[in-house]
Amino acid sequence: MPHRILLATDGSETSWRALHEAIRFAMPDDVVRVVSVIDDPFVHYQSAFASHIDLEAVRDGMVSESQRTLSDTYKTLHDEGIQADTRAIDLRAWGGTIADAIVREAERWHADLLVLGTHGRKGVRRLLMGSVAEEVLRQTHRPVMLVTGPAPSPQSSDAAASVTDKG
Fold first, then answer.
1. What CA dihedral angle connects 10, 121, 4 and 76, to 10 degrees?
2. Nearest to 32 by CA among 68, 79, 91
3. What's the confidence (pLDDT) of residue 120?
4. How far is Cα 131 from Cα 122, in angstroms, rounded to an integer?
5. FRET partner for 69 with CA separation of 20 to 30 A, picked from 42, 77, 98, 164?
6. Domain extents for the chain?
7. Which of 23-32, 45-54, 110-119 has the lowest mean pLDDT?
8. Domain UspA spans what residues (predicted)?
9. Per DSSP, which regions of 48-149 are E strands?
């Protein structure tokens, strides 16, 4: 019986890693639905930045980037011989959070598995930015595969420190 795999993507490196894990996991008859959620910058930034930034232009850029990401992801899946479709979810129309939209689409589409990347933020960064993956895990009753990004290497932090010291 074919499975329905919902892959959430935001175009990040971690999302591309999640795509490749979904490819490794998918069987020949499975279908992968790729979703990209377009957040509404007006909800988060209107009061603070409205006079300094054209938030409509920011939103247009987000829509364009989402379409590029969906197109590239679809092509990758198609090239691997995997049945796929894509869906952009605009929070202006759907409301709620990114995690809400992912969970609602998984329910609506009857996904058997959700696949998404997690950025692995900790401490203050996690507190300020939140965790879509964690929110999805809390809300859904469907299986979830979380894919992490590469662990930072000790060498890369040493290199950054030495560049700063030379500055």
1. 40
2. 79
3. 56
4. 10
5. 42
6. 4-166
7. 45-54
8. 1-147
9. 83-90, 113-118, 144-148
